[in-house]
Amino acid sequence: MASPEVEEGLPLERIKDFSLEELLGMAVKAEIGAREFYESLAKNVDIRELKEKIEWLAGEEKKHEELLRRIYENTFPGKEVVFPREHIGPELRPVARELKGVEDILDLIRWAMKAEEIAAKFYAELEKMVEGEEKKRLMRYLSDMEWGHYYNLKAEYELLLDWAMYSQMMHMGP
Hints:
Elements: H1 4-8, H2 20-43, H3 48-75, H4 93-99, H5 105-129, H6 133-172
């Protein structure tokens, strides 16, 4: 069960009136944070296949950052991305703190899934709050990206769970 701190994240009320430029800056900053989250997670994994999957997710976050930067550049030509001073976006630090003591690979994936779920719900909720089709479309796109990561991790989790059960059955003998 996730702590209330993990569930709560940040109040969306502060973000609903952001301009498209501010929302894009927030999203770029969130992708950078997510990439750093996965990179630090990969450092704690010894299973090569899982490490590669987590590094792949870090790479996906990097691609999303680059895509959002291109959208920003096309929408606001010649302007540098303006990041919010404080962290605004899906709050992953509480998840990262929970992961510090995790040694079980299944727990590790469950917490990574939680991080993706938090991000997906954050953007979906924000989509309901922002005005204008362009802003709504951006939030929907970001939510869909995060759900994609969630389901990728879930598939990995279920494979490992099946493997763990199979492995235990093999050791039990006749």
